[in-house]
Design brief:
The structure is a single chain. By secondary structure, this protein is an alpha/beta fold. It is 48% helix and 18% strand. The protein has a domain at 1-115: 3-Layer(aba) Sandwich (Indigoidine synthase fold). Strands 1, 2, 3, 4, 5, 6, 7, 8, 9, 12 and 13 form an 11-stranded mixed beta sheet that branches. The two termini are 30 Å apart. It binds pseudouridine-5'-monophosphate and manganese (II) ion (MN). Pseudouridine-5'-monophosphate binds at residues 22, 24-25, 28-29, 102-103, 120-122, 124, 137-139, 258, 261, 265, 280. The site of pseudouridine-5'-monophosphate has 18 residues, from α2, α8 and α12.
């Protein structure tokens, strides 16, 4: 059922490190035409660090783990490419649909393929106004039952960050800051909230993964939250101002469901003169490189 690319199959066979990459950020999180170039650049960054990238997406009903250039191009540019959470996978497969995978769908397919390390920008989580909308990303529930290490810059700052951290605690998902005592804020280096654990090296992260295996109790994710460097973060004042506008616009235009996250991210890009995009990219780039180093430590190379 899974189509694993030749490059990824060879890496498995040789015991080389592999890093899963999501595709929603390409199809729905970044503007065209930059998205395709970024997708390639992220894959190159993984290779640069000595690991093999496995970008994940569903094409014509077939889940792909690792995309060739043409497939990556389709994900970036094809009109009508859907956004697939894990619940959408059986529907997309049966109806032969094509779609980009979110964190939840990517983590599920990566784990099925035997990949343990995954890099992204920011996780989904509990939205502000949750009491009214009950909007909580399916990312959280899925990470509570899949053993995968997710390198991210925290959760998207458009969310209710304290509530999301609470949910992760309730769900039993392990969370650590990477060289940080604070949970990062996606576009911002610091969400203002502390983390209970700090890890300092890829080897240390791999030790935690081995401890998960030894413990063998439940399959839950390990979130490694790495802040975007302060020099590359979005100006916090600009962030606060534009985000307030974005949330208001979302409310006024009655945007709901899957459309909320892409709407807010796009609003931020357009109203910060691209500065939010630069911060987003800086965060993802750093995460992809760190994930490759963690995958290498995990593979013991
Ligand atoms: N991080 C980014 N850009 C994105 C996303 C994450 O930098 O577009 C995507 C991820 O795929 C995440 C999804 O899983 O947004 C969450 O969407 P929702 O809130 O609808 O669950
Ligand atoms: Mn949602």
């Amino acid at each position: 059922m899974l189509i694993v690319s030749e490059e990824v199959r060879e890496a498995f066979a040789a015991g080389r490190p592999v890093v899963a990459l999501e595709s929603t950020i390409i199809a729905h999180g970044l503007p065209r035409p930059q998205n395709e170039q970024v997708a390639r650049e992220l894959e190159e960054a993984v290779r640069d660090e000595g690991a093999v990238p496995a970008t994940i997406a569903v094409l014509d009903g077939r889940p792909h783990v690792g995309l060739d250039a043409k497939e990556l191009e389709r994900v970036a540019n094809e009109d009508g490419i859907r956004k697939l959470g894990h619940r959408d996978l059986p529907l997309a497969i049966a109806t032969r649909a094509s779609g980009a995978t979110t964190v939840s769908a990517t983590a599920l397919l990566a784990a099925r393929a035997g990949i343990r390390v995954f890099a992204t920008g920011g996780l989904g989580g509990v939205h502000r106004q949750w009491t009214v909308t009950q909007d909580e990303s399916a990312d959280l529930g899925l990470l509570a039952r899949i053993k995968i290490t997710v390198v991210c810059a925290g959760v998207k700052s458009i969310l209710d960050v304290p509530a999301t951290l609470q949910r992760l605690e309730t769900l039993g998902v392990s969370v650590a800051g990477y060289r940080s005592t604070h949970f990062p804020g996606f576009y911002l280096s610091d969400s203002g909230l502390p983390v209970d654990w700090t890890l300092h090296t890829p080897a240390e992260v791999a030790d935690v993964m081995r401890a998960q295996d030894v413990l063998g109790t439940s399959d839950t994710a390990l979130i490694v939250a790495q802040p975007v460097p302060e020099s590359e973060q979005l100006d916090p004042e600009l962030h606060a101002r534009v985000l307030a506008d974005a949330l208001r616009a979302c409310d006024e235009q009655q945007v709901t469901g899957q459309a909320v996250t892409p709407f807010l991210l796009d609003h931020l890009v357009r109203h910060t003169g691209g500065a939010s995009l630069a911060a987003n990219l800086a965060a993802v780039r750093g995460n992809v490189r760190l994930a490759a180093r963690i995958a290498a430590a995990w593979a013991g190379v």
